[in-house]
Amino acid sequence: MSIESYKAFATDTYTYVDSAPADPTRNYQSIDDSNTKPVLSNHSEASLSVTEAIASMLEELGVSYAFGVAGGAMASLWGSLSNSLMQVLNFRHESGAAFAAVEAYFATGRPAVVFTTAGPGITNALTGLFAARGEGAKVILLSACTTAPQRGRWAIQETSGYTLPKSGIFSSGELFNYATTIESPEELPQIFRRLALGLSQPGGFVAHLSIPTGVQTSLVNTSLPRLDLSHSLFAPSSEAIAKCVQMLSQGSFAIWVGFGARGAGDAIRQLAEKTGAAVMCSPRGKGIFPEDHPQFVGVTGLGGHASVLTYMQEQPPLHTLVLGTRLGEPTSFWSNSLVPSGGFIHVDIDPEVPGVAYPFVKTLPVQSDVGVFVEALLKQLPERPSGSEAVSLPNPEREAIAPGADSPVRPEILMDAIQRTIVEGSDAIVMAECGNSFTWATHLLRFSQSNRYRVSTGVGSMGHTVAGVVGAAQARNGKAVAIVGDGAMLMNNEISTAVKYQIPAVWIVLNDARYNMCHQGMTLLGLKGADAAIPPANFVQIACGMGAEGIRVEKESDLQAALEKAIASTVPFVVDVAIDANRPAPSKGRNQSLAAQGAVSTPVKHLSFPLV
């Protein structure tokens, strides 16, 4: 399967089926092996080492970028990757490489590779790979491990069942959709087949190939298949569509858009305008439905809008059509106020998702690709009766910002400047780190296009965006902007990597010398004594010391010029903003959720979304 054919089946050529997703860990006998040939035509089979063959396999699967940290145990693998058609980027930490691979995938839709050496190289990458699985990315980890005769003999950075658990790291399960240790070159054809199957399926796919050091240089004498797999999208049955039409025709309904609907924005807009339905979205779903559309009632969950609850209270829908979101705590806080009286119609590619977040609510589950489902629904749903008036819906609040001192910078003023200069003034991808950066950006920024805003809600690791912005900017060959806190910036930045490859990433640092979400959250919960302070850091000096450029902003009046300079720069750039640490972030819903789960024993007054 060539890179061109992979792109085709990933975007254009679909077979609509009702069956469950193929399991890449199973042995599929239906694949045509008649067209087996060496992967590299300019090499004889006997001249290919295992790692050279793996590099060629990855090229065939459409991989363009490999992110990682080298080491002695994977010298042969590193050499083969470096001499392939893939671009190899050497990072400063394996977790940063994994986060970059995740965001490179979401920026391009093409699978990405992470490479590590043995031992700590693997364990350092696990958090980023955990995020890849949770976010639904397509990422392949290549790692080194100890060769069989040396296992249990205290090898340097020994990586075997003697030192690490095989289950979960070296086997398929909760972390990896597919994982194996390559003990023989003869295994490669089947491994190639399983990788291709996994990558060709809708949704995420995270794999791990562990390659013993002694096996890496072994010669491959087996023909490797050139697979031709079509990308199957899962369609709902006609009965399911008929049932949905019947339920949605009973009364008004709302549409709840999640990240899994990111390829169906145009169809969802047609559906909303055809039916007059109100539309809300998860934090990861921002921009899939234009946030300036009159039918958009707001973002739900962490950093969300009170307008959603205003709608649910004043114009409650009979049903809610949920498209591609798990409805987990960051999206819903499991609030009963978001439950429609008639229940949910929940559409997801994963059959295990519907009904989990709200197990007590009547839910019609539909396993389908969201785009395929909406297209089918559009053909069957009747138009609104002619002459019926469009209902005026509440829209996300835009609080006026009162005049104030010019310093320190209020987060609301910073977000307003980012909106004008970056969101509206460029085509940059905007990414927000977990913490207050997440809540301010999610609450105040507005996007009218999909695939321009990225946050991680399920895992929410600090350092994800700080490092991921490098992968996104590199993969899209353009600007990517990370809105991050000083705590995350100190934890895991890849400025040095961006400098090495002259990647035009931008970091906007909310510098308040605190883990401020923790500080504000503890204060709101009434819990005293915890220390969330951080010694003040000058990130411009840090950036310049690594070879990047930067500017310090201490006055609100200097924001626009600084952001314009950052977005115009062709090199890595840090905007270090002295932020007002005492402005309460719109994150009180998270604290009420913690209280409800027993984090504190006394009720907590709810000060922000979801205002219940």
Automatic annotation (TrEMBL):
SUPFAM superfamilies: DHS-like NAD/FAD-binding domain (SSF52467), Thiamin diphosphate-binding fold (THDP-binding) (SSF52518). Residues 50-159 form the Thiamine pyrophosphate enzyme N-terminal TPP-binding domain. Residues 434-577 form the Thiamine pyrophosphate enzyme TPP-binding domain. Residues 243-377 form the Thiamine pyrophosphate enzyme central domain. Residues 385-405 are annotated as: Disordered. Keywords: Thiamine pyrophosphate. It comes from the Bacteria. It holds the Pfam family TPP_enzyme_M. Belongs to the TPP enzyme family. This is Scytonemin biosynthesis protein ScyA. It comes from Funiculus sociatus GB2-A5. The lineage of its organism: Bacteria, Bacillati, Cyanobacteriota, Cyanophyceae, Coleofasciculales.
